[in-house]
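Propose amino acids for all 239 sites.
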């Protein structure tokens, strides 16, 4: 695995991990808010995909080793564009996006604009940022957050101090033309499953919806249902 840095069109430094295994297809892994490419959960997710594809996992602006401040989907599609263009320069014949939580929202926004993407996996994607429930008092939220706590990750987070206008995934999902897998957790306390179901129902592309019974949020679905989650994602990308 090689660690690299890119510069976005708006001059933000983006840090990435490139898992090069000689494949001609690549999965770009996009973590959500307060998660990074080096989080234990996302290292595991990247290593899972890396058994079958090359993988690029990266830190959005305002996270981990990347520069700038996080704008909660307002500008992060620019970060994804830099990573996708890096993949194109590496001559991958197929590029897949696997986004989690706000990373999934950004993946959907980007896929609606780009001709470079071949398939998308959107895990716990919100349909509208302003409607995210984020019920942190529930044990499904604070319990999972406590189990995944990493001090170096937590102190690296830099949110933009002023709210910016954002594209709502529900407003663009019908413009996505590539096959898209929508995954949700029945008991997600952060992004309730209706968000992802609403996105699935509005999409016109080839699509599939999977809701994990008693499942929680984003990367927790991988951690709690690893075998089934892995099979679901690989089947979607390979077949």
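Proposal:
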């Amino acid at each position: 695995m090689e660690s690299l840095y890119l510069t976005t069109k708006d001059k933000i430094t983006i840090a990435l991990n490139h898992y090069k295994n000689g494949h001609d297809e690549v999965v770009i892994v996009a973590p959500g808010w307060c998660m990074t490419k080096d989080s234990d959960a996302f290292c595991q997710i990247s290593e899972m995909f890396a058994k079958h594809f090359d993988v690029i996992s990266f830190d959005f602006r305002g996270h981990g080793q990347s520069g700038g401040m996080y704008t909660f989907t307002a500008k992060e599609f620019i970060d994804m564009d830099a990573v996708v263009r890096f993949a194109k320069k590496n001559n991958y014949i197929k590029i897949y996006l696997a986004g989690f939580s706000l990373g999934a929202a950004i993946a959907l926004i980007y896929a609606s604009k780009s001709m470079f993407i071949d398939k998308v996996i959107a895990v716990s994607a919100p349909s509208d940022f302003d409607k995210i429930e984020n019920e942190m008092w529930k044990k499904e939220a604070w319990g999972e957050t406590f189990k995944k706590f990493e001090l170096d990750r937590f102190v690296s987070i830099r949110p933009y101090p002023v709210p910016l206008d954002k594209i709502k995934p529900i407003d663009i999902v019908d413009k996505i033309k590539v096959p898209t897998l929508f995954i949700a957790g029945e008991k997600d306390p952060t992004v309730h499953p209706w968000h992802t179901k609403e996105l699935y129902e509005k999409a016109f592309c080839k699509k599939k919806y999977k809701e994990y019974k008693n499942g929680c949020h984003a990367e927790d679905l991988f951690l709690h249902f690893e075998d089934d989650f892995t099979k679901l994602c690989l089947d979607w990308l390979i077949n």
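Residues 159 and 222 are 26 Å apart (CA to CA). Strands lie at 2-7, 13-19, 25-30, 54-58, 94-100, 119-123, 180-185, 207-212.
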